[in-house]
Amino acid sequence: MNRMYIMVGYIATLVLAILTAPVCAQPGNLGHNPIYPELPQKEYTPDYFLVGEVDIVVDETTKKATLEFDTLQPASAAKVYYGLYIPEQDIKVPQYRRSVIEDLVEGSTSHSVEINIGKFEGARYDICNFSENGGVICYRIELFNPDLASSVFYDGGFMVEGDYSIVPCIIEGPFVDLVNENSAVISWETDVTTTASVEIEGRSYSNSESDTHHEIAITGLSPGTKYEYDVLISGIHYQTYHFKTAPTNPRFEFAIMSDSRAGVGGGERGFAGVNYHKLSQFSIDAYNNGADFILFGGDLVNGYTTNMDDYRMQLKAWKDATEQIGCYIPIYEAMGNHEALVDVYDDGSSYGIEFDKHDNDITKSAETIFAEEFVNPANSFPDPENTSAPGYEENVYYIDYGNTRVIAFNTNYWWCNYPEDFGGNLEGYVMDNQLAWIENVLDDAKNDPTIEHIFMFAHEPAFPNGGHLHDAQWYNGGDPAQNKGYNNTQIDRTHVIERRDELWELISQNGKVVAVFFGDEHNYNRMNLNSETPVYLNGSTNSNFTNPVCQIITGGAGAPFYAQQETPWSDDVEFFYPSKHYCLVSVDGGIVSLKVVSDSGEIVDECVLKDGTPTNEANGTTTELFVEVIPAISITVETSALDFGMIGAGLKSSTQ
Hints:
The protein is 13% helix and 34% strand.
């Protein structure tokens, strides 16, 4: 069963409200260092099946390779698919051509599969001059997980020369990261320790240390220029790729999507905690539709695991699905509630008491591993919220691209499922230091004449519309009967709405913020918030929401769908679509437009978010937010309210 640790409506939506208050105003131990109960810990790893690395040995005489690996519990015979890559393809998609079933009679935790790579010699299967030069063998391991009653998959690759001797291979990436007008970073992982370098236009960039993880900074580039780059490992040319630097001319496109955790339907929809099927499809489609970069707003994977290796394996599966275009355009990731790596204390309940793992000599927090697995900007980030709290580096950041600033913030920092009782933080709850950082970054962009547009992205929406609601009571701080902590203790959470307002006032009063993108709800919806939008349970408004700002929820990259529900602002929702999709944003000087593409390739929403008309702001640099729907929508969807109800003590049903 695919259990999901999501806070119930009243927390997940309270938190969706993205909020916090000064420590002195926070109830109980919220924001304090964790108080760990004197209870036994338990393991929870529902997506962890293949453990450790796949060991590969190649016999140069027989021209066969043996793949050896272990499973967490006994598994029946594995099946391995294997093949080559087509050199002419810009997007390197594995071309599996042969398969073999493991010679195994009874279930076992130890597995060994022999594949005949000599079969790629000769004209019948040789698509890359493999007979002469060798090449990369791509493989996919299929195993049957009895707990899930379905197959699970793991991808990998190794490289041989023409004489079948095994040589170092890139097993992750390369990725182009941190692209601006004059520089970029190229990163990748190799299966063994190597030196690394990148060559561009006769210039060589390298890092002097041998390692399996490589990050190479490229400098001295020209704006708006396409560059080919050659990746070298241990001095040997591996492959040629390309990327384009940020333009000085403010004309570009970017894609944004969220929630690619495992979906329903089997096969690649449940690939090591990832909906590989939809994620790779949307990533490739966004690239082919001209996106210069991609933003991803959290819930990359299933997460909610107690095992650090499992957490890394899921993130690596996510990167496996995106590396086909990540070598050409940068992808910037934010953390969702499913990017959870936890310690669980067994109190006899279904889920126990959960804490974000603590950084020490033995364990690492979800935030720290997230920063190690991805290359995101470290130009600016808040200080940790307390002495035991994790860092914000590379999970809260901003990027400037052309005339635009993009701000990533973290609504799932330092999570605990009962923070008022045991410390840590609520899901979706933006704490003090992060809020102050957001204010400073917004103010800096407002005062920068080169920045014309601001976009923000995080996970839990400030104003949810479908999928994480129990009822409307929480909008004014919650019905006291429903604001429950551990053992049903009553908690006053009125401060969460105050901080939602405080955050949205910073956003709306800036004058340059065009849209704030969220995920969490597995649907697409768009609404324009202003001083006339009803944002409280009694239907009243907030006059401090000075400038209109578009909230866009785009949680359709693979997770199971949610329908629309009733909220005080339902009448202000301009478009709702409950199925798989991604968003494509076009910036052309002062004009910003939006296109929403479904998994069938249809345009489900298309509008102008900002028309470029100057306003009367004192600095004279802002333009009018102008949401004009283009009458080219090819799908009309009607949705109905759906009450998911409350399950247990503060947790949602595992099927949601």
